[in-house]
Design goal:
There is one protein chain. It is built from 13 helices and 14 strands. By secondary structure, it is of the alpha+beta class. It folds into 4 domains: 101 residues, no CATH class; 99 residues, PAS domain (Beta-Lactamase, 2-Layer Sandwich); 69 residues, Helix Hairpins (Orthogonal Bundle), CATH 1.10.287; 164 residues, Heat Shock Protein 90 (2-Layer Sandwich), CATH 3.30.565. The strands form 4 sheets. It has a 5-stranded antiparallel sheet. The structure holds adenosine-5'-triphosphate and magnesium ion (MG). Magnesium ion binds next to helix 10.
Length: 478
């Protein structure tokens, strides 16, 4: 207690301090004992001198010890992550100062490394999140340590920290993953079914690639699972085979009618002049229908080929509408219909493929003539709009656009029919019953052209206003 306070330092802060001072003073004690034994110093002066040395040591050692204690506390705080600042207490001892400087530069280096590591991890995560397919990182026990954005969207936001056995139920997938985790195989590829978190009832066909990473350590990612959703590919495959089946069916019908009549003309109606004329007329109609169908099929595939090409022309829509009117006016007047236009004086040009846009508007006007009320007017109107309405199934361009509407009078088209009008080969039953000719491809061609131009199509139908198809085409395609 005598030395409890010396200057600003507290002895109690450092319990080893007294012991250290005594140890440091031991050689002096030994020298004084020798001097007393050799009778060169009296015990009294030996004790006084030793006491002075102890006090001297205390005065010089105490500040250094306290500074080292502060440094020790600071390093402990650093180790526990309780501080991120530099050690900035003023230290007077030379050694303590040097140690403090060394600790500070180690701390700076560590901060720099941590920053670099954090930004690397962040950019790696961002890169993984841009990948379109789901990716999962798993540890030795099959726990999901990481999942990219696509995996979280596909399997649910909280899949990390779950075991793959709780996320996937397909045994073939779990067994394959275990083979990789047990190092029985380096990688596995398989197809399995996943029931999605969002939609528990729908199973999705998925291709999985499970790959062991080159190193193996506890608690770390030891394997990566990449998934590829095959549902879309299966759907496209089905659409393609349906398309081929539909196209051959549509071609087979007129072909069988033509062959049937040829046979009749060769046999029973061989000498029947009147029947021959009648049959030849039907055969010519069927042949024309076949060539229309083939032309439309070719047209569809030609448009599909240009699907990723940005149109290079800037076109004037009123001019295109004029061309369509010239081509269609005869057909319209045959049905006692008039083609009327409504357009502002000035309209911006649009970035589009002239020939395709003419085909698109012509298909809409052709439908209006075929399915509209006779006699009545068909109105083709043009106007500039600020924005194209969004579409759920394809991307539409941003910015200004021109809207082309084709309206015909007539009975309302039901909601169910409206939803299916752009499907390939879809035709409304009532029009088939009325024997109105058509391949059922005109609107699917129109849709493909619109998708290529990043535009949109809307259809409205009421008993009072009739049916209006509105096509939005952007002024600029980026
Ligand atoms: N303006 C319209 N009013 C009422 N129904 C329409 C209209 N336009 C299209 N439809 C219906 O949509 C179906 C599909 O039209 P689409 O243009 O794709 O084929 P199509 O006219 O039958 O044949 P194509 O155009 O190839 O000669 C038509 O058969 C018809 O039933
Ligand atoms: Mg049509």
């Amino acid at each position: 207690m005598l030395f409890k306070k010396i200057g600003r330092y507290e002895i109690d802060e450092n319990p080893n301090f007294v012991a250290r001072v005594l140890v440091l003073s031991l050689p002096a004690a030994f020298v004084f004992i020798m001097l007393v034994v050799l009778n060169l110093l009296t015990p009294y002066w030996a004790i006084v001198s030793y006491g002075m040395i102890v006090i001297f040591n205390m005065i010089f050692l105490l500040p250094v010890s306290s500074e080292l204690q502060q440094l020790k506390n600071y390093i402990n705080e650093l180790a526990k992550g309780e501080t991120s600042k530099d050690f900035n207490a003023s230290v007077s001892g030379l050694e303590a100062r040097e140690i403090a400087e060394a600790v500070n530069s180690a701390h700076k280096f560590w901060l720099y490394k941590t920053d670099a590591l954090e930004s690397q991890v962040m950019s790696d995560t961002a890169v993984l999140d841009t990948l379109p397919d789901p990716i999962l990182m798993i540890d030795r026990s099959g726990n999901i340590l990481g999942a990219n954005l696509s995996a979280r969207e596909f399997l649910g936001n909280n899949i990390t920290n779950n075991n793959i056995e709780n996320v996937f139920s397909a045994n073939n997938f779990i067994n394959a993953a275990n083979r990789v985790l047990k190092k029985e195989s380096e990688s596995e590829n398989l197809i399995f079914y996943v029931s999605r978190k969002k939609d528990k009832h729908a199973e999705q066909k998925v291709y999985a690639h499970i790959k062991q990473l080159p190193w193996f350590s506890k608690g770390r990612t030891v394997a990566v699972i990449s998934l590829y959703d095959l549902t879309k590919a299966v759907k496209i495959e089905k659409m393609q085979s349906d398309f081929v089946a539909n196209a051959s069916h549509e071609l087979r019908t007129p072909l069988s009618i033509i062959s049937g009549f040829i046979e009749t003309l060769q046999t029973t109606a061989k000498d029947d002049e009147q029947a021959r004329e009648y049959f030849l007329k039907i055969m010519a109609d069927q042949a024309e229908f076949m060539s229309e169908l083939i032309e439309n099929l070719l047209s569809l595939s030609r448009i599909e080929l240009t699907q990723d090409e940005k149109p290079s022309e800037m076109i004037n829509l009123p001019e295109v509408v004029e061309e369509v009117i010239q081509a269609m006016s005869l057909k319209a007047s045959d049905k006692n219909m008039r083609l009327v236009t409504e357009m502002p004086e000035k309209l911006p040009k649009i970035n589009a493929d002239h020939q395709q846009v003419r085909q698109l508007i012509q298909n809409l006007v052709d439908n209006a003539v075929k399915y509209g009320l006779s006699p009545s007017d068909i109105t083709i109107s043009l106007k500039e709009v600020e924005k194209i309405p969004a579409s759920k199934s394809f991307n539409v361009a941003d910015g200004k656009a021109v809207a082309v509407s084709v309206n015909n009078k007539g009975a309302k088209v039901s909601r169910e029919d409206l939803m299916r009008l752009t499907e390939r080969f879809y035709r409304m039953q009532e029009h088939k019953d009325l024997n109105i000719k058509g391949t059922g491809l005109g609107l699917s061609i129109a849709k493909q052209i619109i998708i290529r131009h990043h535009g949109n199509l809307t259809v409205n139908s009421t008993n009072y206003d009739g049916t209006t198809f509105t096509v939005y085409l952007p002024c600029e395609i980026k």
